Amino acid sequence: MAGGKKAPEPEPVPAEPEPTGSRWKKQKPPEPPPEPEPPQPTGSREKNRKSPNHRLNLSHRNPQDRGGKNPPEPPPALPIAKHQKKQKTRNCGLYKATFYSNIGSFLFGIAVGWTAATEKSVMDRSFYKFHTSPGEWSAVCNMLTLGAALWCIPVGLMARSCGCKRTILIQAVPNTLGWFIIVFAQSVTMLYLGRFILGMCGGAHSVVVPIYLAEISTAKKRGAMVVLYQGACICGVFYSFAMSVFVEMWIFHVVTLALLPLLFLQILMPETPGYYVDRGKIGEAEETLRWLRGKKYNPRREIDHLAGHETYSEQDARQGPLRGFKFKKIRRSLARCLALAVFQKLCGALIFIFFGQQLMNCLRIHHIYLSVVCLAVALGCLACFLLVDRLGRRPLLILSTVVIFFVSAFLGLYFKIWMSSDFPVLSWTALVCIALFMGAHMVGLGTLFWVLNVELIVRYMRPVGCSLILTCNWLTAVFVLCWYSGHEMKCQPYLFMLFAIIALMSLLFCMVYIPETKLLSSEKIQERLGGIMNRPTAVTFTSSSDTSL
Predict the structure, then answer these.
(1) Residue 69 resides in a domain
(2) By 3-state DSSP, what share of the chain in percent is helix, strand and coil, each rounded to 5?
(3) DSSP string, 280-297
(4) Distance (Å, rounded) from C-alpha 289 to C-alpha 298?
């Protein structure tokens, strides 16, 4: 430099003092945000249980940063069906709806028992002024089942479009008309017409009433409520038998006509919740559930289940009445119900109901002792009502068919060997065996058919599927009555041996192809329909009303 002077060096910029303290350490690049935790169960226990990291949000860090120890694993969550708080329900509304819907079933039971109760009066011309031949009377008996068979499919389509309540209410008009024709008949043709109309009403109730009872009931009471349909029919048969024994026929008819106004009570029963949910009327569905379960009942969970959890078959079934049959599981369940329908009518109980007095005459026993058989039927139906939701469907089916097999075989041997003897104790032995036969039939297939017919079919297919099954059921009844009336087999041993063979076939079929449906939703029942002996693949007890009391 000139002059020997050095240029002044620029003063260094003083560095900022490094802050002290742990808060001002060199910052690390920001960590990625923690992944969202899976939703926790909403039960009361899980709500009150705090996370082990509730003070500091350390759930996203590596466990090795906290001393190399893995955190303790939380206890496993309890099953949903167990830890959720059960709602308290009052089933008063359910019982009232069951009573209202079964009024028509009771009147149909009166029509079923009318032939056996009035046969002597009609054939002796003590009530009607016209003469009735044995062949014409047999046709009068068959008209009831024929009308039921021909009216089932139209009623199924009607229930699908109009709902169960409206379909049941519509039957009040032909029911009243049929009884008036029967009471004031002036010819055999009028008896044919009246019986056919009453059979139509009975077929309609056999399709719609079990569906209605199954859809308004909780899973814990579903079996017992559907059993009450058969109980109402049996009460009607008992009514006919009692009136024929203690009063004259005209009093019987007058009291029956006085019972017809009870049909107007059916206006008070609600429509099924599923009917409203399928049509988007959620408010009406909530009101119906509160009417059935109690005013304090929260219906949201049940409605959510009805609105969702649809399988592919159920979605197709909603589009058309026959589209669901293209799925294998629906066809499989339909085939099994059809087999049950045939076995129920072929097992022989129908003959004891329609031709009970003829069998008593064959046994040389006064018809007043039919009360023993009626008592057995009542006890069997009561036992089924009390045990169906406790023991399940399969144990009762298997036990009852075993009893029917042995009793039928014994009756066949009895009529083969001992019928020619004059010992009265042998007749009483046969009467006790017939009572055991009818009681076992009521405990098992005679009553549980109506339960399984509804439970094995998915909800959207029930109106159409059950109508097809009941058509087969009533056509089988027509065949049995026509065949029995056309053959002189009143006390032939081969008849009871045939009943034993049918009971054995029913036993094997129930053991192999009928699953247990107690407390199961429709989805879980469909899962059990596959495989030999119906072993479940994945069974959990969660459905719309499975946890309801």
Answers:
(1) no
(2) 70, 0, 30
(3) T-HHHHHHHHHHHH-TT-
(4) 8
Domain count, the chain: 1
520 occurs within a structural domain: yes
Dist CA 514 CA 396 (whole Å): 12
In one-letter notation, the amino acid at residue 208 is V
- State the CATH number of the domain containing residue 231: 1.20.1250.20
Tokens of 204: 């309609």
The answer to whether the CB of 397 falls within 8 A of the CB of 512 is: no
pLDDT in tens, 56-97: 333 334 444 444 444 444 444 334 444 345 667 788 999 999
In the predicted model, is pLDDT for residue 537 greater than 70? no
Tokens of 448: 């549980």
186-192-194 Cα angle (round to 5): 80
Angstrom CA distances, 492 to 346, 349, 420, 504, stand at 16, 16, 12, 20
SS3 38: coil
The CA distance from 199 to 204, in Å, is 9
**What is the band of 471 on the pLDDT scale with cuts at 50, 70, 90?**
very high
- Whether 68 is covered by a domain: the verdict is no
Sign of CA dihedral 169, 174, 180, 182: negative
Asked if residue 242 belongs to a domain, the reply is yes
CA-closest candidate to residue 514, choices 494, 534, 485 = 534
Do 209 and 97 meet the contact criterion of CB atoms below 8 Å apart? no
Confidence of residue 329 (pLDDT cuts 50, 70, 90): confident
CA distance 465 to 313: 13
Q: What angle do CA 406, 408, 409 make, to 5 degrees?
A: 65
Angle at 379 between CA 373 and CA 384, to 5 degrees: 125
Instruction: Provide the domain limits for residue 359.
Output: 92-269+310-534
How far apart are the C-alpha atoms of 178 and 434, rounded to whole Å? 32
Phi then psi for residue 61, to 5 deg, are -85, 165
Share of the chain above pLDDT 70, in %: 76
